[in-house]
Amino acid sequence: MKHRILALIALAPLAPAWAQDPPTTTPAIPDTVVTATRVPTPRDRIPALVTVIDRQTIQENGYVTLAEALATVPGFRLVQAGGLGQQASGFARGANARQVLVLMNGVPVNDPSDPNGAFNFGNELLGDIERIEVVRGPVSSLYGSAAIGGVVNLITRSAPTDRVAAPYFEAAGGSNNTVRGFAGMGGTVGAVDYQITGQGLSTRGSNAMAPRFYQNGGELDGLRSAIVTARLGLTLGETVSGEVFGRTRIEGLVRGRENTAGLDDVPNDDPNYTGQDQSWFGYVRTATDMFGGALTTGFTISGTTNRRRYTNLPDPGNPFGTADDLFSASRQAASWDNTLRFPDAGALTDVVMLFGGQWEKESADSANGSSFFRTTVNASQRSGAGYASLQGRLFERLDLSGGLRYDGPEGFDGFTSWRLGAVLAVPEISSRLRASAGTSFKAPSLFQRFGTITGFFQGNPDLRPEDGFAWEAGIETDIGSWATVSAMYFDSRIRNLINYDQSFSTLENVDRARIRGGEFAITLRPTDWFSLTGAWTVQEAMDTTTDTPLPRRPRNIASLSARFAAPTPWDGPRNQRIVVVPEILYTGQSPEGAFARYNDDGTSITIAGKNDAGTVFNLTATVPILEQLAGFVEFRNLGNTRYEPANGFVIPGRTAVAGLRGTF
After folding, report:
1. What pLDDT, on a 0 to 100 scale, did the predictor assign at position 306?
2. Is 232 exposed, middle or buried (0-12, 13-18, 19+ CB in 10 A)?
3. Which of 315, 406, 418, 320 is closest to 356 using CA atoms?
4. Residues of the domain holding 440
5. pTM of the predicted structure, to 2 decimals
6. Do 214 and 602 meet the contact criterion of CB atoms below 8 Å apart?
7. How many whole angstroms from its chain centre is CA 498?
8. Are 60 and 72 contacting, i.e. CB atoms less than 8 angstroms apart?
9. Highest mean pLDDT pick, 308-317, 466-475, 647-656
10. How many domains does one find in the chain?
11. What is the pLDDT of residues 397-411, one digit of tens each?
């Protein structure tokens, strides 16, 4: 497979030779990305592949949840075990879900009470999110633990600088008794800026259990979700001719979320199984510009609490229900971060150095399961880290970057991670060549170290971190101003994977994995009213200890979306268009482990197998009504596909939602 992928990559620079330019259109302005380097950098100068989902895309494509938005990201496979609000795991470039780090405004928010320390992508609504940045590949040299497969950064809405008050809203309703919406306002008053958003969703939901099961009773699994986000900032400094000198920025954010969702105990339909998920997240951050902006230094103090409660009362289908499963966790962290900008020196320009240190404490207190087989965790662990990175440009065409970080956790081995990368602009063929390599790690979770099932299982406090090495290389080529094609080969090896010992009585660093594949993308922009984007990821993810495929990593994932922006046929709002976005998502067959698969009668299958492939067709249309008001309609799964991304769980069927969206 490697040779086939490399052959496809080798053909990419030949594109300008056979392509013929249509009439010239305005090229897209390169995105500036923060997550990949911690400092704003044009995306075409970053060695890693980055996907940016901005507010306009979220609205025009009808993305309501984080899981919906990430399903379109190349190299990212999203597995949701059920409908809205239910557990969703993200696999970035074949890495395990626990090996993907999630940030909010640059601060980690993975759940310490999760047995693997993973993040549930099924919980989050997007009404307060301005932008999502997804970096694929190892990023531990910047962010530490869990950044093996990649990093997802949720960037919240920020206040407009030119208005005292800028309100906005969205309200919608439709299939399955779904009602949802958000409202908020932001603005700047002198040196103070503010932003607040409240959002909610209520739906009767769909039946998440596969209809093939004999025990399927047709019970629906609904969701009620509420989120409030408040952000307040203060900018101090001397202003001269509109520019701020000696600026100090102080910012605080608080975000609270509460979800209540119906669940199923697959392969049993369970009408009495519900879950509550609450979280609070907040931080205070400062940033001060010194020496004419050559140095920016600042501190961040953050805190996160998670509380999950699952109630599964006895019923005829499940007479042994669990009365109460509780998971509580907290994380406190502090960081000191610095950005040092050097003056240009001949052919060397844009030199920036980042350095700093971090401290973190995470705690978990959980108890779940029956009285006979009850799992408990009551523990905490601390860690400290220091990092430094450097990036610059040579001869206005070669961008170089490198980073080094040491994490020293409490009670187990520390880890030194590094990353080197380069981007070479080759304007002679309208291309950019990318290459990078680096190491990464995932620290063992609190459950893995300290979890207990009395008489059956004991966690292993001597576990070592899971660690990986990965490299990637590829090319991106512009065909005139109307198209861009790209290809990237990636190869990673992960060691010391944590798994159960042969007696299932504890955990050990026993497994290894190798993941390799290619990401291919094309974007067409032939006119200002039509664009088309396609992406295809092919990968091979193997457990090299057992020589078996890693579960839930399909060999092929593909997406295709178009954007039609037509003028209104009536005397509509000035410069506004009717926007129609069709979207096709394809997921190939995916392996599933033994005992995670079920026959139609609910009995476990003792050998590994595959889940069937599936294709989903979505359609969203937005129609301007007034200058600042638009109507929209969202159709999901128009083909009513009911494939199983995880064995036993089907995706929701066909739905439609209509609503209004406005800014004032």
Report:
1. 96
2. middle
3. 406
4. 2-663
5. 0.93
6. yes
7. 23
8. no
9. 466-475
10. 1
11. 999 999 999 999 988
